[in-house]
Amino acid sequence: MANIPALPTYPEPLWMKSAESLPSYPKLEENIESDVVVVGGGISGITTGYLLAKAGLRVVLLEASTLFSGTTGHTTAKITAQHDIIYDALIKQEGYEKAELYYKANADALQFIRDTVNEHGIECGFTEQDAYVYSKTDSYLSKLQDEMAAYERLGITGYYVDHIPLTNIPAIAAVVMKKQAQFHPLQYLSALAGKFVEAGGRIYEHSTATDIQQDKHPVVATANGCQITCDRVVICSHFPFFDGYGFFFARMHAERSYALAVKSKVNYPGGMYLSAEEPKRSIRSATDLDGSPLLIIGGQNHKTGQGICTINHYETLQRFAAESFGTESISYRWSAQDLVTGDKLPYIGRITENNPNIFIASGFKKWGMTTGTAAALLIRDLVQEHDNPYTQLFAPSRSLSLSTLKNLVVDNLDVAKHLVSGKVEMVHRKPHELNSDEGAVVSVHGRRAGAYRDSEGKLHVVDTTCTHMGCEVEWNDGERTWDCPCHGSRFSITGTVLEGPAERPLKTIEVSG
Questions:
Q1: pLDDT score for 390
Q2: Is 20-75+186-250+344-401 in CATH node 3.90.220.20?
Q3: How confident is the model at residue 21 (pLDDT cuts 50, 70, 90)?
Q4: What are the backbone dihedrals phi and psi of residue 302, each rounded to the nearest 5 degrees, phi first?
Q5: Which tens digits make up the pLDDT trace of 359-393?
Q6: 172 vs 161: CA distance, rounded Å
Q7: Are 498 and 337 in contact (CB under 8 A)?
Q8: Distance CA 43, CA 236 (A)
Q9: Beta-bridge partner residues of 475
Q10: Keywords, A to Z (predicted)?
């Protein structure tokens, strides 16, 4: 198709650009004490901190970079309990009771966000929208009908349709969940962080938690040598920086997905949309800095480090947007990393049964606005030793079904495959052959390495052996990063850790340009 608008040269989320000046917070430079330490400045961490401070506890929140800079700042920001076609499968695999609890936990989270926006008068573009999972082919009709039957069993307010308001998409059926919502996540969370501080909470940015000394009073250590002595630790750092013998790297896998924010020639009818078919297509409306309407179009998910060449995923969305919505321009592009557990349910609660004072919230799949909020509501109760109906559903130490165990076996066989294949790959390209703004796996002195030549001509060369468990990282040309196909660690062009479970940077290699 001719005249398809160009992609932005560099990735940047709409939310980061369109949020008004975000507050900054100091770095931790001294040893302190607190009742609770929350690690991670995304939606689960900030909401947890807010709730615990509001309950009268002394709370410190640590963020390794800046608030919202992780997955929360790279979301499509749908607030919904409609997490694809899941409820029929949940009933069949986990039972009616667990499926009902999962829905109620996410519905509670949506209601909490709605109430919090109203209570504090937060201007964040919160608007109610009906959510649609649609199909364009006959092959998904029976699945959508089964999902609608699950809605009826679970008491979910929704209905089944044979068309959708978004007439540019030739859908032949959809299930609809009513009165879901969307918002600007950073405007919401920036306000919530302010309320957290007003309640006595303390926030420290650029303060990387590196370890926890386990005791009756845990001690959280930071990269610059500071320590925080506390009663409880809550790990909301996306991938848990502290494992506690929970072996989470073997119980979750990492996926990446992509998004564009585009100006469209089509009048948008409202609603939030998700395709039942693969590759996924997620669609919602948004607003640009100047108040002009945008569409956020997402999809193209794949396991981290296994989607090479990643720029192709943006280009596929670029073509879809042009063909479906008559794109005038593409204002932003970005991607996100999500963690998926074996049974597709998050890990929320005590990290292990042997660590009663350490809690985690992780594995939100692609639905962190509700599951991250649900995590905060659950952990608030666990920290205060209050009963909560969702404790067993999300417990990290929960027993797993046979089908879930099979999923984990498949994931770990995939890890083994990539561990071996990366070691035997033949590489012939040399660093000096790279053009400006190009990266690739290269050979340096007969050994595998990763090289990127920046726009000023400088070469950045790293050892491609992941510092987590020794797999070989791959070049991500869409983000200009080095990504591990085994457990999802990601590194910058200079080797700095961007995503765990790796904790140490890639080794750098000196070569002449």
A1: 98
A2: no
A3: confident
A4: -160, 160
A5: 999 999 999 999 999 999 999 999 999 999 999 99
A6: 8
A7: no
A8: 9
A9: 482
A10: 2Fe-2S, Disulfide bond, Iron, Iron-sulfur, Metal-binding
Q: What pLDDT was estimated at residue 306?
A: 78
Q: Measure the CA–CA gap between 156 and 504, rounded to whole angstroms.
A: 45
User: H or E element: which one contains 420?
Assistant: helix 402-424
Torsion of Cα atoms, 484 then 487 then 491 then 493, to 10°: 10
176-231 pLDDT, tens digit each: 999 999 999 999 999 999 999 999 999 999 999 999 998 889 999 999 999 999 99
Three-state SS annotation for 179-247: EEEECCHHHHHHHHHHHHHHCCCEEECCCCEEEEECCCCCEEEECCCCEEECCEEEECCCCCCCCCCCC
CA–CA distance, 95 with 219 (Å, rounded to integer): 40
Residue with tokens 């909490």: 112
pLDDT one-digit tens code per residue, 295-315: 999 999 988 887 568 899 999
Type and span of the H or E element at 354: none
- What pLDDT, on a 0 to 100 scale, did the predictor assign at position 248? 86
CATH number for the domain running over 402-513: 2.102.10.10
Q: How far is residue 432's CA from residue 409's CA, in Å, rounded to a whole number? A: 41
pTM above 0.85, yes or no: yes
pLDDT 10s digits, 32-66: 999 999 999 999 999 999 999 999 999 999 999 99
- Which residue in the block uniquely carries the two structure tokens 């008559």? 326
Separation in Å, CA 408 to CA 250, 295, 343, 380: 7, 36, 9, 30
Q: How close are the terminal C-alpha atoms of the chain, in Å? A: 39
Angle at which helix 43-54 crosses helix 185-198, to 10 degrees, equals 30
Cβ–Cβ under 8 Å, residues 471 and 458: no
Alpha-carbon gap, residue 487 to 464, rounded angstroms:
14
Query: DSSP string covering 382-396, please?
Result: HHTT---TTHHHH-T
- Percentage of the chain lying above the pLDDT 70 cut: 94
Q: What order of strands is seen across the sheet that includes strand 490-491?
A: 474-476, 481-483, 490-491, 497-499
Domain definitions of the chain by residue range: 20-75+186-250+344-401, 402-513
